Amino acid sequence: MDRIDNEIIVFETIDSTNDQLKRYLSENSNYKIVIAKEQTKGRGQKDNKFISPPGGLYISIAIKPKYDIEKLKYLSIRTALEIKNILDKLYNKNIKLKWLNDIILDEKKLGGILIENIFSKDNKLEYSVIGIGLNLLNNIKLNEELNDNCISLSLTNYENESKKIINEIIPAIKSLENNFSISDVINSYNECLYLKNTDISLVSDNDFFSGKLLSINEDLSLNLLLNEEKRSFSYNLYKINNPYKK
């Protein structure tokens, strides 16, 4: 465990950077950023397990949004856009974003994002904890279940490259405290939407639909073209079936 300054702390291995940061926040600690090289109990969206072996970068940052609570739902895709812009700039990549916030490179998953909001007893927002996981090394060890679906940045110098990325991520994520234009965010997201204008399948517990993926809406629902008719599907109910190319 290394303390970089009063705000940032780094672990070799930890259960979850989000969980550790929430523990610090509950103790009124000065730490607002937790970084790890490995997570043993990493979590993704909808309580999915997030495989987090050595060779990845796992970082959680606490911010205090300065806008209406109704706009919190956009924090996830705003974070994804910031990560895309950073990686495109540093490594000349063409990162795509899978509905809603998976980071995609060469049609495989490079990383993911988990947002957890902390409210006071009187239901006022205290912090938004933004967790980011990225695969950095070319020799990253992924379990058999995820190996075909995942990719890394194929970097070779972990220490130098992770510091470079961290130095970009921290100010970018802190800037997400500020107010923003919803339409600008949605337009930017649609420009890099993974599988846009291709035929996909959406599944839920009870339904299955196939059609051309068009865009997302301001309520974050996904538009599909089904038999020449546009229909919208909620992220809370549906997911893209088998999105990664083998």
Automatic annotation (TrEMBL):
Q: Which residues form the BPL/LPL catalytic domain?
A: 1-181
- An example of a Gene Ontology BP annotation on this entry? protein lipoylation
The molecule here is called Biotin--[acetyl-CoA-carboxylase] ligase
Recorded GO terms, molecular function?
Answer: biotin--[biotin carboxyl-carrier protein] ligase activity; transferase activity
The reply to whether Ligase figures as a keyword in the UniProt entry is yes
One Pfam family, short name please? BPL_LplA_LipB
CC annotations in GO: cytoplasm
The record's top EC class is ligase
Which keywords does this Swiss-Prot/TrEMBL entry list? Ligase
Q: What is its EC number?
A: 6.3.4.15
